[in-house]
Write a structure and sequence with these properties.
The chain is an alpha/beta fold. The strands form four sheets. Strands 5, 6, 7, 10, 11 and 12 form a six-stranded parallel beta sheet that branches. It has a two-stranded antiparallel ribbon with strand order 1-2. The chain has a two-stranded antiparallel ribbon with strand order 3-4. Helix 4 runs parallel beside helix 10 and helix 9 runs parallel beside helix 10. The protein is elongated, with a radius of gyration of 34 Å. The C terminus is likely disordered.
Length: about 325
């Protein structure tokens, strides 16, 4: 009898176990447990990957720089910030399921204050964080040196800003067209190379507007940069130019090429003084024509690009391919 009861107990246990295993409700329960565990695992991996990207961003984001008025250098343009695009970076990494620095995506962020937000003020240089410089080629004479200067710039793929005297444009329309067609930016250098600081308000207006008129009729271009001859100005000149939707441009490095320096000496001096955001004053002279190639090579060897005034004033950040390779994709 006792053996019989033991045998029945064992059979009952086996039966209950079988029913439990084969029960659809039990299957669903186990499946739900499995799926739940998988979901938790995926969510954890996703959160971990995003956390790694956010940690990386906190260490590598660069804040934008606002435009400002400096006591010495007057108006200085702003410069875009550079931050990690967390969502875009995650999207690129999720297939691999792990953090990969080479797949980081960056985006530029504009400063809160731009050059246009500042009151009228002269501009001597670009943002000191921007590894770019520009040549300011003031043209009121020196036609014989312009072809060589243009040829050298073309050879080195340099485009910069030529500030044209209005009376010069009137007499040299073909040369003005060549300069523009070579891809250079055109600025206003007044009409008769006067001392703008000494002029009446009416004459200041006349010099700037008359030059714009001849440039527009010759090249179909409206200048937005004004370079007063010899850098002579008073605040009223700057304000009048601003009212005409032009900003006043001066310089931070001077070739002093009108004194006819030795081209090699001049080029070495300029390159030694060049800095991020430098604006380099020059004219069509023998010294500049012969020393320009040396200046271009020297400036580039220091890691600076050469652009127009508009490019230098732009807040757009210059990105080195080896520094942020993914930004170009």
């Amino acid at each position: 009898m006792k053996k019989m009861m033991t045998l029945l107990s064992i059979m009952l246990i086996v039966l209950i176990s079988y029913i439990s295993v084969q029960n659809p409700l039990t299957d669903d329960y186990l499946m739900n447990l499995k799926n739940g565990a998988t979901t938790v695992s995926v969510m954890t991996d996703k959160q971990n990957l995003k956390s790694e990207i956010i940690d990386y961003a906190n260490k590598h984001d660069v804040k934008p720089i606002d435009a400002r008025i400096d006591q010495v250098w007057k108006a200085i343009p702003g410069y875009n910030g550079f931050i990690v695009d967390v969502d875009a970076s995650y999207k690129r990494m999720k297939k691999k399921g792990k953090f990969d620095e080479s797949l980081i995506v960056y985006k530029q962020v504009q400063p809160a204050t731009s050059l246009d937000d500042l009151p009228p003020s002269p501009i001597y240089k670009g943002n000191p964080e921007k590894p770019m410089v520009t040549f300011l080629v003031n043209v009121a004479w020196g036609n014989e040196y312009l072809p060589e200067i243009l040829e050298t710039m073309k050879k080195h793929n340099v485009h910069t800003t030529f500030f044209l005297d209005g009376s010069w444009v009137k007499k040299n329309q073909d040369m003005a067209k060549i300069i523009y067609e070579e891809g250079h930016e055109i600025g206003n250098h007044a009409y008769s190379h006067p001392d703008m600081k000494q002029l009446s308000r009416a004459r200041i207006n006349e010099e700037i507007k008359k030059t714009n008129d001849i440039i527009e009729s010759t090249l179909d271009v409206t200048p937005k940069w004004f370079a007063p001859p010899s850098g002579s100005y008073r605040m009223e000149v700057v304000e009048i130019a601003d009212a005409l939707e032009m900003k006043t441009i001066l310089w931070s490095v001077d070739t002093v090429d009108w004194r006819k320096p030795d081209p090699n000496e001049m080029a070495s001096r300029v390159v030694s003084k060049v800095h991020p955001g430098a604006m380099i004053l020059m004219h069509p002279t023998h010294s500049t024509a012969k020393g320009l190639e040396q200046m271009i090579n020297g400036i580039r060897s220091k890691g600076y690009s050469i652009g127009t005034v508009s490019q230098l004033m732009s807040e757009k950040r210059i990105v080195k391919a080896d520094q942020f390779p993914e930004t170009r994709k």
